[in-house]
Amino acid sequence: MEIRHSVCALDCPDTCAVLVHVENGRGVKLQGDPKHPVTRGFLCGKVARYLEREYSVERLLYPQKRAGEKGEGRFQRISWDEALDTIAERLGGVAREFGPEAILPYSYAGTMGMLNGSGMDRRFFHRLGASRLDRTICSATGSAALMATVGLRYGTEPEQFRDAKLILAWAANIHGTNVHLWPFIVEARRNGAKLYAIDPVKTRTAALADRHYSIHPGSDPALALGLAHVIIGERLYDADYVSNYTNGFEALKQRVAEYTPERVEGLTGIAKEDVIALAREYAATRPAAIRLNYGVQRSERGGAAVRAIVALPALTGSYRDVGGGVQLSTAQAFRFDKDALEMPELQRKSSLGREARIVNMAEIGKALTELDSPAVRAMVVYNSNPAAIAPNQNRVLKGLRRADLFTVVLEQFQTDTADYADILLPVTTFLEHTDLYLAYGHYHVQMAKPALEAPGEAKSNVEIFRALAKRMGFEEKCFDDSAEEMIEALLGSGHPFLEGITRERLEREHSVRLNVAPQGQPFVPFAQGGFGTESGKCEFGAEGLEYQPPRESRWGDEALRKRYPLEFVSSKNDDSMNSTFGHRKAQDAETSVLYLHPVDAEARGIAAGDRIRVFNDRGSLLLKAAVKSDAESPVRPGVARAPATRWSKKAMDGHNANALTSDRLSDMGGGPVFYSCLVEVERCGD
Ligand SMILES: Nc1nc2c(c(=O)[nH]1)N[C@H]1C(S)=C(S)[C@@H](COP(=O)(O)OP(=O)(O)OC[C@H]3O[C@@H](n4cnc5c(=O)[nH]c(N)nc54)[C@H](O)[C@@H]3O)O[C@H]1N2
Ligand SMILES: Nc1nc2c(c(=O)[nH]1)N[C@H]1C(S)=C(S)[C@@H](COP(=O)(O)OP(=O)(O)OC[C@H]3O[C@@H](n4cnc5c(=O)[nH]c(N)nc54)[C@H](O)[C@@H]3O)O[C@H]1N2
Ligand code: SF4
Ligand SMILES: [Mo]
User: Which residues contact 182 (CB under 8 A, 6 or more apart)?
Assistant: First the structure.
């Protein structure tokens, strides 16, 4: 038996170091690397069983072309030569006839690997002059808010949560989506720390917390402003930190004056006494860490929410403390030379004489059905499953069904999107290719080489885009770069955080902490200001912090809320990774339920286990009602929760939660608003 090193490439903050036990060339077990300071020897439930996915009989093994109607999912095996020739010919034809902007790449984070996520593909599409994709689907709103407020997408090291005395899990289902933070929280609690969860859903994390504040969806700006109201009003703030390292305190003071605990109670559903007590405790407890996750920014006021929340540690001076501050992301500390990888300079060679247009991926339905001059005529999908994960699904599917759209899908499995492909290409998993990894929940850079052999004729994204570049006649040398050369280019930015971190060292050590602080010492980026904003200070930006309830909420548009009185939250499923495990049988049972409060269920004559139709103007879907007693219910009256997202084709009626979600954009960064969504529910016959 041999043990090989790998890195989990799923879209998860933990980016675990994985040990692959190999016997006679076959992987027999995956284990978390005990030497890795964040993985600490364990994997989450879904990846501990990843070898089932790796060796699944449903893996795609050969290139195929469509044999039935779009969406039907019937395919016929072809050779790589035929596949590449067809794609090169069709993309070339579209570029000649309509201009290269009629070609759209569509990708997200199926793998977080740098090379297979944004390497040869970017070079290829830049050289082609294709439309550029704004990859907003997950974190754009929060990122824009972080940049506006603190100017950097850095946050508290996970290892420092063990030092905290108070931890707020704010829109963060840590136990489900970020489980490697949990042991640090356990350690902190053993030392007397309290854990509070702020979430409209009683998640596993909220259930395990010392307190759960069940907040109205999307109302977080009001809560944060209410906390600031108390902190400023009672002079609990750190006047020294505020005066040295922040901008806009006076305007913030005026703004929060309007957010009295009484008013905040009305807006958020959190009792005024609780608002006051939480503010006092947060300000008085040192260190106090906030784990803010992305749930909060998937609503119409998500930008304002993140702005107001990350202002709190600046008010209390918590940014000074080891184990203080806030973590939304750590990703920006990985100061790779992304331009050397993606080569945006190749774009200038596009025949248009200007940079190609930008298409927001959260509006893919619109892009495929409404965009013109030119309309999208060809789409290449990789690392993503837009038919399942993009909002306003019926509009997306209408676009994917277009007969005049040429669609290529690079996939490991025959997903919902794959069913619409004209050409479907088999790709490798992270266990089978070389890549370099950042993390958005810790500060350790990692590299992985293939641990297992690719099955059938599967190739990596890197190899596929390299081969396509050749077929298209692109002669630039960069299309010959090896994976090793691309990694070296990424590491060669010259930034001090990467000093001494070379490919050779990563091959030897697998994981290396960024030089964010001297060895063995904690990274406290904003201890003495040091913000990345133009002023170098934390920008409170109170002008942007007026709270209006989301249009799609029980306090929003009146006509809408009368017809659709329930707020629908389709947050993550604990035992999945977006739609990545959509092929699994178990998946179906876990994600085909809607949690309703007994009051809402009774009012509609619905009992636990009933088949129900959930609907709004955008679509409808069939689910099974899950109703518990008031004390046990994960949601309060007026809120309904469905764990997302599964493959639509495995559902009772061929739809998932995104048949209901809206493709409006949030208040900052052009992000989607999956969790601002009004619906109605009715019982349907058996
Ligand atoms: N098991 C599992 N792990 C995952 C994923 C997965 O699908 N499954 N997905 C990965 C990805 S892509 C990401 S981006 C991360 C995301 O990780 P998280 O951000 O933790 O995941 P979400 O479920 O989107 O949102 C977190 C919590 O926010 C709550 N929430 C929803 N709306 C609001 C609101 O308005 N206010 C407040 N305070 N809370 C709200 C939800 O109920 C949820 O419990 O997780 C990653 N890890
Ligand atoms: N209703 C609702 N919708 C949501 C969300 C929600 O909470 N609720 N969350 C949103 C968020 S935060 C996100 S990040 C998105 C996620 O949306 P996506 O990024 O589309 O994520 P997945 O559904 O996991 O699909 C990733 C696909 O990439 C494939 N893949 C993995 N590795 C590779 C590779 O190396 N090469 C290629 N070609 N393919 C590969 C996998 O097989 C999988 O099918 O979903 C969003 N949609
Ligand atoms: S999904 Fe997240 S927790 Fe699970 S193994 Fe991968 S990185 Fe670790
Ligand atoms: Mo995400």
Answer: 174, 175
Whether 136 shows a pLDDT value over 90: the answer reads yes
Nearest CA, atom 7, ligand 3: 15
pLDDT tens readout for residues 153-190 = 999 999 999 999 999 999 999 999 999 999 999 999 99
560, two tokens: 């809408």
Task: Match domain 141-328 to its CATH number in 3.40.50.1370, 3.40.228.10, 3.40.50.300, 3.30.360.10.
Answer: 3.40.228.10
Give the confidence band of 559 by pLDDT, cuts at 50, 70, 90: very high
Q: Are 216 and 553 in contact (CB under 8 A)?
A: yes
Give the closest residue to 285 by CA, choosing from 192, 211, 213, 220: 192
CB contact at 8 A, 316 and 538? no
| CA dist., res. 247 & res. 535, Å (int) | 8
Residues of the chain with CATH 3.30.200.210: 2-54
Region of 605 (left: φ > 0; alpha: ψ -120 to 50; beta: rest) is left
Beta strand 166-170 with 211-213 is unpaired
CA of 331 to the centre of ligand 1 (A): 17
Write down the number of H helices and E strands in the chain.
25, 27
**What is the location of CATH 3.40.228.10 in the chain?**
141-328
Architecture of domain 558-683: Beta Barrel (2.40)
- The CATH 2.40.40.20 domain(s) of the chain lie at 558-683
pLDDT of res. 69: 98
Does residue 608 register a pLDDT over 90? yes
pLDDT tens column, 408-453: 999 999 999 999 999 999 999 999 999 999 999 999 999 999 999 9
Q: Which one of 185, 294, 555, 639 would you pick to mutate in the ligand 1 pocket, going by the greatest count of ligand atoms within 8 A of its CB?
A: 294
- The ligand 1 site (C-beta within 6 Å) comprises 11-12, 138, 170-173, 176-177, 198-201, 203, 215, 217-218, 220, 293-296, 299, 569, 571-574, 576-578, 675
Which atom of ligand 1 is nearest to 298's Cα? 32
Fold type of domain 64-138+336-445+453-501: Rossmann fold (3.40.50)
State pLDDT tens for residues 206-230: 999 999 999 999 999 999 999 999 9
Question: pLDDT class for 585, splitting at 50, 70, 90?
Answer: confident
The whole model's pTM is what? 0.98
Ligand 3, from 5, 7, 14, 181: best to mutate by most atoms within 8 Å of Cβ? 14
Class of 2-54 in CATH: alpha beta
- Distance from residue 425's CA to the centre of ligand 4 (Å): 24
